[in-house]
Specification:
Rossmann fold, TIM Barrel, 2 domains
Amino acid sequence: MADNPADVLLILAPAIGHPHRFESLGLGYLTAALRRAGITVRAINLSRLFYQLDRAFYEKLYQAGSLESFYHLGVWGDDPRYIDEVISRRLDGELGERINTFARLAAEKILAQEPRLVGFSLLQSNIVCSVAIGRLLVEQKVPVVFGGPATREPNLQKYFLCGCCSLIVTGEGEETLVEIIKDFLKRGKMPTSERVMVGRTVKDLDGLAWPDFDTERPLGWMPAATSRGCTARCHFCEEARFFPGFRRRSVEGVVDELEHNLQRFRAQGVQFHDSLINHDEKWLLQFCRRLRERLGPVEWQAFARPTGLGEELLQEIRLSGCTALHFGIEHFSQRMADVLGKRLDTRQALRVIERTAACGVPVKILIITGPPGENETDHRENLRALEKLLKKFPDLVDLAANPLMVTPHSLYFHRPEKFGLEFRRDRQGRVLGCRRLCGPDEKTIRRRLRELLALKPAPAPGREGRPGARRSKEIS
């Protein structure tokens, strides 16, 4: 018998390319929702187990499975043929042996807990381990539910349902998954009318239970969110399509959660997962003031759009404890910003970034190189703007750069021909790779990427790297 039995186990399989101390905000919300409903549940991050059992192999996969390993494909996500091999048990060699060995051990530990149901959160980076473990549990007649961002792809869904899971719940699960599990625990049966269910959109975010992280160690960056959705509609991004519309929480609701969870989980800082923390500047100003009034300065980071941000607001952001605003300008060439669908005046965006750093708020600039049609003049505009910022604010500006990667559910993915892209597909029509019909080739893109990253300062400025782990200069 399990020492601490739980009706439900929520599993985060090893997310290759993420650090092993990665905490899932999504699982935190689901854990809290189930507990509020009176369901006994435990959340388990298997990345830590993977790291402890086979550190050398974990670090090898960390490098091999990070975003950089997909550059040559031009699309983000595992090659579907590779997933076929996992599901059909044809994955061989050292990689297959060690992943399958870990899957067997993980399944044994899960089964020893005697759960009535097991749920997996699938990211693009943990599909392989999730299906390998899920398949073993299904063979032992354990009901398995898959959810998370990677479950939205129809081509993957049919493979997941071929012996790897019993049910798929896409989208937001805090309400729908709770209802499914309550019904299952009462009747002992999973839904039979449909095996893929769309989670109901949560209308009142303040009504959600605060995220609950099953961890005994102090958290470094504690994940949190002030909103869901995005007000932008960038061509390369799928965020606005993952969370319908745009919903934000109340200032008091967010500060209440931080006050409770920072102390409970002994967190050193907060990483907001919102796409845009400055979605409403009046809201942000009030939040910064209330945070400081109630908790004093708290280390926090967030993504922001390089628009607005007057000096009064920036001073409040700095005084509240912000250690970095991550600006997704993507490109300083106006022509390329338009190609990417940024809807930004790049000259104005540059002034906003300068103003932010001048107010003492550290910034991290996110750049995408290699959009369709990018030429050397466009690339030089990126270099000039970054060199100017880094020279003027060497202790406050950092950068991250990656080639354009087409993500599932983005506008680029659904209408590639409109944007000068062409997909390479297998016989089933699944996307294996992407190439640009005009613009830079792979060699040129990699050269431009090296030139951008050569500007990157060695230490993370403005304490941007704390309390999370720093990555090498070669990996942005």
